């Protein structure tokens, strides 16, 4: 398997970046493989980073492909315009931004657009053919990656584990790994130690104004989950006493 990303090599700051955006001191950031996992504490900036990437690539801040142009709230980070994407020059067959917290908004927009289609192909045909609002959160997420994701695409995913059981996360890993071998690139923010175990993925930990590459067993998620599973309830009790 290749050890370099197919489409997006990284992000850097333009000279026009205002000094008040000190958060972006963590750039430049490079992506060295087709699967990049971003980890870090809540509020550290993983979602902001992915949102910036998605907007720069033409996707809505709330999720969807470049064909979706909708907005329920204007909350995206203003510094996005001061970032530059480092690309390989290869053509991307498809781009999609999955954001777990606003996936409902995306499904609502799809339903709205499909209601306005007269005699044409409904958009949900490309997501399994069902109204995703009629499925559970987990089922609608599986409909997305099982039907919509394809080779030579670029997929940005913010906490895809939010709606998935452990077994379904394994199914997602299988899909991601299979597509990565076919030239698809994934950039994923996650707290899941299951997703962090994706074979041949690069893990980047984000901290206050820094980022670093870490190995799976050196992540805090691996440490805490292993402690919890190895000690029954003892470890949790020691933390809350």
UniProtKB/TrEMBL annotation:
Annotated keywords: ATP-binding, Cell membrane, Ion transport, Iron, Iron transport, Membrane, Nucleotide-binding, Transport
Domain ABC transporter residue range list: 8-240
Organism: Acinetobacter pollinis
Membrane topology listed for this record: Peripheral membrane protein
Domain of life: Bacteria
Locations listed in the record: Cell membrane
PROSITE patterns from the UniProt entry: ABC_TRANSPORTER_2 (PS50893)
Protein name stated in the entry: AAA family ATPase
Pfam families: AAA_15, AAA_23
Coiled coil stretches, renumbered: none
InterPro entries per UniProt: AAA+_ATPase (IPR003593), AAA_GajA/Old/RecF-like (IPR041685), ABC_transporter-like_ATP-bd (IPR003439), P-loop_NTPase (IPR027417), Rad50/SbcC_AAA (IPR038729), Siderophore_ABC-ATPase (IPR051535)
